[in-house]
Each structure stands twice: as structure tokens, then as C-alpha cells.
Amino acid sequence: MSVPSAPLAEMPTDWTRALAIVAHPDDLEYGASAAVAAWTDDGRSCAYLLASFGEAGIDALSPNEAAPLREAEQRASAAAVGVTSVEFLGHIDGVIEYGLPLRREFAAAIRRHRPELVLTLNHHDTWPGGGYWNTPDHRAVGRAALDAVADAGNRWIFPDLVEDDLPPWNGVRYVAVAGSPYPTHAVDAGAGFERAVRSLLCHRTYIAALTEEEPETYCRTFLTGTMTAVAERFGGRPGVAFELLRR
């Protein structure tokens, strides 16, 4: 499939509640958090659901050491863009499996939070630009999140959730996929850029293991580059791009 080059449309604004479902701490901070900051500024709510603690992401730290550090950094990172609800499911980082149990957990969260927009990370095999293989966790979580949106609205799928006082929720109107090779829409990153930098900077333990560059310089340079690239298809405005799927 070829990468599209058409202009990116404005993300819809006819919604008030979002739920972000991703695999690891920092998944949302490599760009999407600028959009989250703009949304919370506008009075919208966004909750975060993470499948794992990202405990396998730092070679120099054992998973038992890394997990609490990454959890704390993610909570601080979310707070930097106005998000107060952050949940972790505790799946083992690196070996998250797509399947019915994962779909059920995500469907339960969707029924509990009742979002109109679900935000997730790239579920495709590759990253934008081609040649860079996506990780199994991202693919599994992204695809399970997409399927869970439909599961959440069907009372005959996971009927035990109704018994747990989680009735069907058919109110999801949009699924926004961040980091997709096939973006269709974008959010202006101007208002949320500085908080996006602060949000990514909260992941200091991970960033220190990732690069020898000064952390703030690394965060600012990375986000400037990705958001400037979006500007080429977004009327010259730096932005955060999403593949938007409608229900």
C-alpha cells in the first residue's frame, strides 16, 4: 500500500470524552500528547489505559526495578497534559498477546469510561517512512483496541461484563490511530507543543537509556521534527497526525 500524500483534514471536535489505549509508557508522548493537551485545554476529558508498565524497555534495569519508575514517569507525563486517570493492566512487556482476554479488558474499559473517541497507537506492520518494523506489542494492542470498540457495543460479546454492571457502550464515534503510516487527519500542535515537550521529558529514565543527548534537547528536537513533517500536508501548520476511523 502506498503512503498517501493528500492534505490532512482537521480532526473532528464533536466529542467530549476520549480513552487512550496503548501498550507502554511513552507511547503517547512521542507526539500524540500535544493533541491531548489541546483537547484538555478545550474542556475535553481523556483517560489513559496502558497494557504494560514498559518494564522490559531499559536494558540496564531489571523489570522489577524499571516497572515502578516507568509507572511514576507515566503518571507525571499524563499530568503534564491535563490527564488525571491513568490505569495499568499489568501485561508482561514485550510479549503482550492479541486475543480474547485482551479484547475483553479493553472492552470493559471502554464500557467503564464511555468515550466518544478512542485513541491508540499504530497497529500496522511498519512505521511511517517504511522499512521500520513495528513491535509485536504495538500491533497486538492496537488491533485489540480496534476490535474492542465493536465488542464494547455488543451485549452478546463478553456477556459477563453486563453482570459486572458494565452495559454495552455504542457511543464511540471515532478511533484515532497515532503514528500510523496512513494518516488522514491532524491536530494543530502549536498550543500543546511546550506541554508535549514537558510530557515526554517526564520519561527521563527511559530517555537516558535511549540517548546520550541532553534530555530536553532530545525531546524538543524529536517533537519539532515530527510535527514539522506533518505541516507539509496540514497547511504549513505543525501538527499531530492521526489515521481516523469512523464508526
Structural commentary:
Pfam families: PIG-L. Keywords: Hydrolase, Zinc. GO terms for molecular function: hydrolase activity. The chain is α/β, with parallel strands linked by helices. The protein has helices spanning 32-41, 63-79, 100-113, 136-152, 160-163, 193-201, 204-210, 215-231; strands at residues 9-10, 17-22, 45-52, 86-91, 117-121, 174-178, 185-188, 239-246. An eight-stranded mixed sheet has the order 1-7-8-6-5-2-3-4, sandwiched between helices. Helix 6 crosses helix 8 (215-231). The two termini are 23 Å apart. The model has no long low-confidence stretch (mean pLDDT 96).
Shape: globular
Return the domain count: 1
Q: State the secondary-structure class.
A: alpha/beta
SSE string, helix = H, strand = E? EEHEHEHEHHEEHHHE
Query: What is the strand content?
Result: 15-25%
Query: Order of strands side by side in the largest beta sheet?
Result: 1-7-8-6-5-2-3-4
CATH topology term: Rossmann fold
CATH class: Alpha Beta
Query: What do we call the CATH homologous superfamily?
Result: LmbE-like
Helix content: 25-40%
**Count of alpha and pi helical runs:** 8
Task: Note the main sheet.
Answer: 8 strands, mixed
Please give the radius of gyration in angstroms. Answer: 17 Å
Distance between the termini: 23 Å
Enzyme class: hydrolase
Keywords: Hydrolase, Zinc
GO molecular function: hydrolase activity
EC number: 3.5.1.-
